[in-house]
Amino acid sequence: MSDPTTHALGHAHADLMGVKFESFDRGREEITLRFHAPDAFITPRGSVQGGLVAGFLDEVMGWAHVWATDQAEAPLNLEISMSLLKPVLAGPLVGKGRVVRRGRKVIFLEGELFDEAGNLLARSTSTALPTPRPVAK
């Protein structure tokens, strides 16, 4: 099984986020990805724009489901909820995403975003539809 960075090659969004695979825990259905928030994501307030924080969380939750299904499925979001707990600064970030519950018609996902020191910066949940994984073009 290959890592997400292999599948994300050529996808500009993954390149912008600096996505790097770290690990997948099959028992917990939890993936850990590393990101790099570029200076271009920073607002005049000095932190990453909120919608872009949601993008990091969406990425890590989605890859959790992809890996949990042995790369056969990808989630199609119906709803994402996010809580920003601390400012997300430019630089390295660690994301953890997990499958909470997977049914035939609906899946529930969670994501967390940390700084390199392990401080929790943001968390999210998603309700999504399981769909066949699109083939990269």
UniProtKB/TrEMBL annotation:
- Protein's name in the database: PaaI family thioesterase
Top-rank taxon: Bacteria
Ranges for domain Thioesterase? 46-121
Q: What is the lineage of its organism?
A: Bacteria, Pseudomonadati, Pseudomonadota, Alphaproteobacteria, Sphingomonadales
Q: Which UniProt keywords apply?
A: Hydrolase
Task: Determine if Membrane is one of this entry's keywords.
Answer: no
By its UniProt entry, which Pfam families does this protein fall under?
A: 4HBT
Species the sequence originates in: Qipengyuania mesophila
Concerning InterPro entries, the annotation shows: HotDog_dom_sf, PAAI_dom, Thioestr_dom
